[in-house]
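User: Teach me something about this protein's shape.
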Amino acid sequence: MSYSNDKRIVLTLDAGGTNFIFSAIRGNKEIIEPVGLPAETMVLEKSLATIEAGFRQVMDKLDTAPVAISFAFPGPADYPNGIIDNVGNLPAFAGGVALGPYLEAQFDLPVFINNDGDLFVYGEAIAGLLPRVNKMLEAAGSPKRYQTLFGVTLGTGFGGGLVHKGELFIGDNSNATEIWLMRNKVKPDCIAEIGACARAVIFRYAELTGIPLDEATAPGTKEIEDIALGISEGDQAAAVEAYRQLGEVLGDALSNAMTLMDGLVVMGGGVSKGHRLFMPELIREMNGIIKGYNDDEFDRIVQKVFNLESDSEIKQFLSGEPKEITVPESSRTISYDPLKRIGIGTSMLGTSRAVSIGAYAFALHEIDKAEAAVVE
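Assistant: First, the predicted structure itself:
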């Protein structure tokens, strides 16, 4: 499923707490200069007026009519029905607002709203990591192909998303893959998010160096990354440990997730740029052991985990352990690769672009499914 050459246009929105950025996509590419308007977060009527005005300004720039509106919007929400119930950074939507149906009435277009983490993974499944890995496997002569992609975003928070066989999985309550609420291995009475986001790196570095635990004045993740790599001055050992601990917490959370899901993993968000510093610990954690009642040791997860950012590990991942086995009571042989494996890599598209492509592809996929159902 690819929409890179599709001529249909979809309107999109990046709904931040400070600005609303509106645009239009055709063939997986942005085709206009985005329109930015100050976010109206407190008063519903003003917020709705801003969203409507932004989409109309985008439409004025187009020479072809769009076929849909599709975008990410912060939850909680009933995404399939387009109902937002955000009480965080967009309190105007508290209590439940039928944003999707409202926009459908204003523009006479189908409207699709999702979580940004979900759309990030959808974009990577359509045009990013998933197809690239499958092409690499094909080029290597491997019969193995992946149809499942789990993804996490590592930024101000810790989000997740899941795509299987081209379909986004959001669950019956629009609440699937809420990985941020998993238990934190390092601080078991806390959520995983506090150990797997930007604040985790910043606060751990501050804790180790004795500087004030103030996100506003402490070094940011990029600065701490540069300190760890010896590019900038600072406490290198503390910086390395801050990222190592993030890898431990993230690896444990992903291990729990991958016991229920079986596929590739993609990481996005600003913190993922420091993967060189936390990926080794993440891989060690996932390829580690866990014990039973009698101290029997088991692999942490069934699959062997490979770092797709490492050339040597990519080679092993692509090669597998192929062999020929004989069908009983015959001379016929069958190719068999007993190595159960998953790969973990970073975004191929960039997080923001992956979300946009995900929004575009999701809308067209839903439209195509609806049209096919009518024909049947």
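Now, about its shape. The chain has two domains: 9-115+352-375, 129-348. The CA atoms of residues 87 and 94 lie 5 Å apart. If you'd like, I can walk through any region in more detail.
User: That's plenty for now, thanks!
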